[in-house]
Specification:
Elements (H helix, E strand, L loop, with lengths): L1 E4 L15 H10 L4 E5 L8 H6 L3 E3 L7 E3 L14 E4 L11 H9 L3 E4 L15 H20 L7 H4 L2 H9 L7 E5 L3 H12 L3 E2 L2 H6 L6 E5 L1 H4 E3 L7 H6 L4 E3 L10 E4 L25 E4 L21 E5 L4 E3 L6 E5 L9 H22 L5 H5 L2 E2 L2 E2 L7 H5 L1
Parallel strand pairs: 1-2, 1-4, 2-3, 4-5, 5-6, 7-9, 7-12, 8-9, 12-13, 13-16
Antiparallel strand pairs: 10-11, 14-15, 14-16, 17-18
Helix pairs in contact: 4-7
Length: 399
């Protein structure tokens, strides 16, 4: 078997990789019958020389590889027919912007294994960058807060490109009595929490947050249980909530008068009520000044997320008086950070964690056999057709 670590072609360029140089070296040592090459890239966070020093060949042509491993979607003109690909395709929810990608994958007889549905039998995801989205999103929240208040100036996370150095800078900040709410749970919120706890911010319960907050800067976490309640007054039931979103109302308005910074990492679907409505921002008791929208659904859970942004221009303003998107950091603005590819701001750290999981859990299945159907469950296409688990995408593909 020959595996190729492919270049990231999607723009803006993503600097992450599925395997670091040292992980590549470990792979070929553990699996001597596997040949591994790395496609040349000008953007990758690890240089060609680092791979060469690890004993891995860096090449310009990967057409002779059996398996091609990347991170982001592969442009259709870069897809190589009759190969097995691993990458985040963003197609399993019938995302219209990637319909052409899925059509091309089928036309070129590609076996596509998507990272997102690679799960254990209990449904827990094996791979992902959610934690690093949370870490960078939280860092960017305070970067934006510094610009908003003009109290401090942090470098962009991608300029530092190091978790420990970034955390050291955050730990030195004087946030006064800044009031921080973060929403959601899961891997994204693990990352957010790691940052807030690393900054030594005090945590309080949602009830304390609005009634008896501690002195100094502090935060609280709001899960779905804290935010959504049944309209009929029935008891909270997670299974009922995730299948009957329309029967719930959002009570985040209780926290609007007490929040300075909102870090949004909550799972959201179109039939769920948003955290607030655009017109709510006109109210005198709407105190939020900075929103780091890690979830980043345009006009979704945060209805004033009017567009997704990139790491070089991460923030826009929402004018409370004009009720429209404007330049950030004005006296009248709520400043929204809505970067879609946050983990690429700390690509070395993010790649190291992702590659470690890939090497530990995925490579053995690829080389020794997928006896528990972990890869099979995540395979979207094969033999020029959608696999049975993803046959629901057939109408989407034909449009």
């Amino acid at each position: 078997m020959k595996i190729g670590l492919i270049r990231e072609w999607k723009k803006p360029a993503d600097k992450r990789v599925a395997l670091t140089p040292q992980q590549c070296a470990a792979l070929v040592k553990t699996y001597p019958n596997v040949e591994l090459v790395v496609e040349e890239s000008p953007d990758r966070t690890f240089t060609a020389q680092e791979y060469t020093d690890a004993g891995i060949a860096v090449v310009n042509d990967v057409t002779d590889c059996d398996v091609l491993v990347g991170i982001k979607e592969v442009p259709t003109d870069k897809l190589i027919a009759n190969k097995t690909y691993f990458f985040f395709s963003h197609t399993i929810k019938a995302q219209a912007y990637n319909r052409g990608l899925l059509q091309a994958v089928l036309e070129k007889n590609i076996s596509l294994i998507d990272y997102e549905p690679i799960t254990w039998e209990n449904g827990a995801r094996i791979l992902g960058f959610g934690k690093w989205a949370g870490i960078v999103g939280a860092y960017n929240a305070f970067l934006t807060w510094g610009k908003k208040t003009k109290k401090f100036d942090l470098p962009a996370a991608f300029e530092t490109n190091d978790f420990e150095k970034s955390m050291a800078q955050l730990a030195e900040l004087d946030l006064g009595r800044a009031r921080v709410v973060f929403t959601g749970n899961g891997r994204v919120c693990q990352g957010i929490r790691e940052v807030l706890e690393g900054m030594k911010l005090k945590e309080c319960s949602p009830q304390e947050f609005v009634s008896q907050p501690p002195r100094g800067a502090y935060f609280t976490q709001l899960t779905s249980w804290d935010l959504y309640h049944r309209k009929d007054g029935g008891a909270w039931d997670p299974e009922h909530f995730y299948t009957h979103h329309g029967e719930y109302c959002c009570e985040f308005d209780n926290f609007l008068p007490y929040t300075d910074i909102l870090i949004n990492g909550i799972y959201w679907e179109d039939d769920m009520p948003p955290l607030f409505h655009k017109e709510n921002t006109k109210a005198t008791n709407f105190e939020i000044q900075v929103i780091a929208d890690i979830t980043c659904d345009v006009e979704g859970s945060v209805p004033i997320t009017m567009e997704a942004t990139d790491i070089y221009n991460p923030t826009f303003g929402w004018s409370k008086s004009q009720q429209k998107q404007v330049e950030p950091y004005g006296e009248d603005t709520i400043d929204v950070m809505a970067v879609t590819n946050l983990p690429t701001e700390m690509p070395r750290n993010a790649s190291e964690e992702f590659g470690s999981l890939f090497l530990e859990h995925i490579l053995p299945l690829l080389v020794n056999g997928d006896k528990d159907d972990i890869l099979k469950r995540a395979q979207i296409t094969g033999d020029g057709k959608l696999t049975p688990a993803y046959a629901y995408l057939q109408d989407f593909v034909k449009k």
